[in-house]
């Protein structure tokens, strides 16, 4: 029997919009392609929930040097703060594996989807005309088979990345009650081999009306890259299973040798990578080349076609891509997106990853928790001032909920208390936004073409082909800068990494994917996690000391992160002709109101919240209609509060506003030093991996434990020092 889930209505496309019977006979389901594909619809629809709930938004977005979680309790609980928390209750040995915050439900979801995929695979393999289906591929049936393989491989990749060694079964084990762990290397190699066969069975993007809400050949090529990179990368493995590291074998059952960086004997853990790791990069190259050189309906966004009659500046292709995603359009750069439904309050992308809003529900814009946020060092130090990705990726203002822009503060909570916020998704940018929270309908972008291009660059770099690696790297780097400075900025990137092209690619990934949950996995697989956990915490402490001593932090790119800024609300409609800003135009004079409203760019407010409110039956007075935008002076340059410049700004109506000072003071005006606030900001992040751990080269524990129910049901025991109910 095949259980089919009725698919929900989604925001952008109709792929999941079909309904289906709840339980039907397998012979009926696979008697036609139209009924068979409803089985895959159910798998897509089911897994979508995992990407709108606790896994990416509470777990993957923390534990790196670009993305952090604003809600301290969630960061501590879900982050299993052996790596990024401090309370003793959340150390590995004390971690409550039965706590509701452990995203164990995703374990169940992934396995349920795997079961559906195995059923689809088994039934298609048994079709009478299977040989003809394969011989004439791609066709509808072969594509459906390929999607099932791709979905299964995706689920196993997620399981391995988050839990390590897990239960493995394929279509050959359907109906068996498997309760033993399979080593992750065997799983990864098996799924790579399956995808190498499945990839050629699938339609490419735009073939047979395929769009990014379905897994296509393009996605399969990128997925093979991800599987190979994870197989090649550093991972923390268990040494308490039978045979120790000898537990880990390849697809043929041969023992694997490892290059070990460090161990933790007390937690029976070892952090290292396979000795044959380079072979997996080589294996990925043909598929990544196909994904880049023969991309069918997918392309990197390199042109910004936008314009309007109100005088806004555009010309930022990176910004244009995320403008399309936010407006529920599937761009050409999207390789695969999880389709998120508008109805039912299940759309968490703008709520968790978006620009923060204090609004309730309904409100204008509604509440956005802004749970995923960033650090001052990313806005000020990591991004070059001319990098057009900066303002799209991170920003400093949110919304009040009645159509007014407001500066963030650093109270380390949520909504507008996050310091530096993410900015790729903003409810203000939707054409007809919903005033209820969790109803944005914005899809979760799981893979875009920039990722495939940078994977190919990385694979070339590992293989020693610097020329090809540079060519691919520059596709992404050059898009981010105005043409006149591209060569100079690329040379600066190379100089910053001592002309190491591999390191340049990894740094470019850091810049490109802020707020997209990639950085944490890149740190793990490249072996950088221990150094970053130690070094970034030291960097935070040093910057806090500099901020207090000098009133600002000086960064190498010329930016200064100041303790104080000057702000005032203004009627941007009168000054600019619009409220919602785009790219910052050239030629602005620092200190003018226009400069204050347009730097940084990609912010402001929806041009007409009044009409949205009136459509909702609210009075126009619900929305502030005059001073809606925030002008900011001194955001990237220190202004001495006692200077004539500060006095002149205050005479023009600007208010001295605590900014960096919020990280070590309390009070609405930042008037009182608070050592507890400073200690939290300077040492909270990633503090579970201590300086002593790094000095001793202990294996970092970044994985999740199996929850109590899973352990009791399967009889399996947790590793890495976590508790087990059956120990």
Describe the structure.
Helix content is 39%, strand content 10%. The chain has a four-stranded antiparallel beta sheet. Strands 4-6-5 form a three-stranded antiparallel beta sheet. Strands 17-16-18 form a three-stranded antiparallel beta sheet. Strand 19 and strand 20 (672-673) form a beta hairpin. Helix 9 runs antiparallel to helix 10 and helix 20 runs antiparallel to helix 25 (675-683). The model is unreliable at 1-24 and 73-85 (pLDDT under 50).
Index terms:
disordered N terminus, single chain, 3 domains, 27 helices, alpha+beta
Low-pLDDT segments? 1-24, 73-85
Biggest sheet details: 4 strands, antiparallel
> Order of strands in the sheet with the most strands?
3-8-12-9
Question: Would you report the number of β strands?
Answer: 20
Distance between the ends: 37 Å
In DSSP terms (H or I, runs of 4 or more residues), the helix count works out at 27
Record the SSE blueprint.
Layout: E1 2-3, E2 23-24, H1 26-29, H2 33-48, H3 54-60, E3 68-69, H4 72-78, H5 104-125, H6 130-135, H7 140-163, H8 184-198, H9 217-232, E4 235-238, E5 258-264, E6 269-274, H10 277-293, H11 317-326, E7 334-338, H12 349-353, E8 372-374, H13 376-382, H14 390-393, E9 394-395, E10 397-399, E11 405-407, E12 420-422, E13 444-448, H15 449-462, H16 466-479, H17 486-496, H18 501-512, H19 518-525, H20 529-550, E14 552-554, E15 560-562, E16 564-570, H21 572-575, H22 593-598, H23 609-615, E17 629-633, H24 644-651, E18 655-658, E19 665-666, E20 672-673, H25 675-683, H26 691-695, H27 708-714
Antiparallel strand pairs: 1-2, 3-8, 4-6, 5-6, 7-13, 8-12, 9-12, 10-11, 14-15, 16-17, 16-18, 19-20
């Amino acid at each position: 029997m095949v259980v089919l889930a009725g698919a929900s209505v989604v925001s952008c496309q109709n792929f999941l919009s079909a309904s289906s019977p709840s339980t039907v006979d397998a012979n009926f389901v696979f008697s036609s392609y139209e009924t068979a594909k409803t089985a895959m619809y159910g798998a897509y629809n089911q897994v979508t929930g995992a990407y709108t709930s606790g896994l990416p938004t509470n777990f993957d977005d923390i534990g790196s040097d670009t993305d952090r979680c604003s809600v301290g309790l969630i960061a501590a609980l879900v982050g299993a703060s052996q790596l990024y928390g401090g309370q003793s209750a959340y150390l590995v040995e004390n971690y409550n594996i039965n706590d509701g915050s452990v995203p164990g439900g995703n374990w169940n979801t992934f396995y349920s989807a795997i079961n559906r995929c195995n059923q689809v695979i088994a039934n298609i393999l048994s079709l009478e005309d299977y040989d003809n289906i394969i011989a004439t591929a791609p066709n509808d049936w072969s594509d459906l088979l390929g999607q099932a393989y791709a979905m299964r491989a995706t689920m196993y990749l997620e399981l391995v990345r988050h839990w390590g060694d897990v239960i493995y079964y394929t279509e050959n084990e359907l109906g068996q009650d498997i309760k033993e762990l399979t080593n992750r290397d065997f799983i990864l190699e098996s799924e790579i081999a399956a995808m190498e066969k499945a990839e050629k069975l699938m339609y490419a993007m735009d073939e047979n009306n395929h769009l990014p809400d379905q897994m296509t050949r393009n996605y399969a090529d990128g997925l093979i890259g991800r599987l190979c990179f994870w197989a090649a990368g550093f991972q923390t493995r268990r040494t308490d299973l039978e045979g120790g590291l000898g537990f880990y074998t390849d697809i043929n059952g041969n023992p694997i040798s490892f290059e070990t960086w460090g161990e933790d004997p007390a937690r029976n853990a070892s952090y290292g990578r396979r000795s044959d790791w380079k072979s997996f990069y080589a294996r990925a190259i043909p598929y990544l080349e196909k994904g880049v050189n023969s991309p069918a309906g997918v392309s990197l966004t390199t042109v910004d076609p936008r314009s309007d009659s109100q005088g806004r500046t555009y010309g930022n292709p990176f910004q244009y891509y995320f403008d399309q995603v936010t407006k529920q359009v599937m761009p050409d750069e999207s390789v695969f997106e999880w389709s998120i439904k508008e109805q039912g309050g299940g759309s968490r992308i703008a709520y968790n990853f978006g620009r923060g809003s204090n609004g309730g529900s309904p409100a204008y814009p509604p509440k956005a928790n802004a749970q995923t946020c960033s650090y001052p060092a990313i806005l000020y130090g990591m991004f070059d001032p001319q990098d057009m990705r900066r303002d799209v990726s991170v920003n400093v203002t949110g919304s009040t909920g009645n159509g007014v822009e407001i500066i963030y503060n650093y109270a380390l909570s949520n909504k507008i208390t996050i310091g530096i916020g993410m900015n790729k998704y903003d409810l203000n940018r939707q054409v007809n936004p919903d005033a209820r929270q969790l109803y944005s309908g914005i899809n979760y972008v799981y893979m875009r073409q920039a990722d495939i291009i940078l994977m190919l660059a990385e694979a070339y770099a590992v293989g020693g082909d610097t020329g090809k690696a540079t060519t691919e790297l520059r596709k992404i780097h050059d898009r981010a800068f105005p043409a006149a400075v591209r060569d100079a900025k690329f040379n600066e990137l190379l100089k910053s990494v001592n002309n190491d092209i591999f390191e340049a690619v990894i740094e470019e990934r850091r810049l490109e994917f802020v707020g997209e949950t990639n950085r944490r996995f890149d740190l793990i697989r490249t072996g950088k996690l221990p150094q970053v956990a130690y070094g970034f915490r030291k960097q935070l402490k040093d910057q806090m000391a500099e901020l207090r001593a000098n009133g600002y932090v000086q960064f190498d790119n010329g930016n200064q992160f100041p303790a104080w800024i000057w702000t005032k609300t203004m009627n941007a409609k009168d000054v600019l002709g619009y409220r919602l800003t785009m790219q910052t135009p050239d030629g602005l004079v620092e200190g003018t109101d226009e400069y204050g409203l347009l730097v940084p760019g990609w912010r402001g407010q929806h041009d007409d919240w009044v009409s949205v409110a009136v459509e909702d039956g609210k009075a126009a007075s619900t929305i502030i209609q005059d001073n809606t935008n925030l002008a900011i002076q001194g955001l990237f340059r220190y202004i001495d509060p006692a200077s004539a410049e500060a006095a002149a700004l205050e005479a023009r109506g600007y208010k001295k506003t605590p900014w960096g000072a919020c990280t070590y003071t309390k009070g609405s005006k930042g008037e009182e030093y608070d050592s507890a606030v400073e200690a939290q900001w300077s040492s909270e992040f990633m503090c579970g991996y201590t300086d002593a751990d790094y000095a001793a080269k202990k294996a970092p524990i970044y994985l999740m434990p199996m929850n109590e129910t899973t352990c009791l049901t399967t009889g399996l025991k947790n590793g890495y020092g976590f508790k087990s109910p059956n120990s």
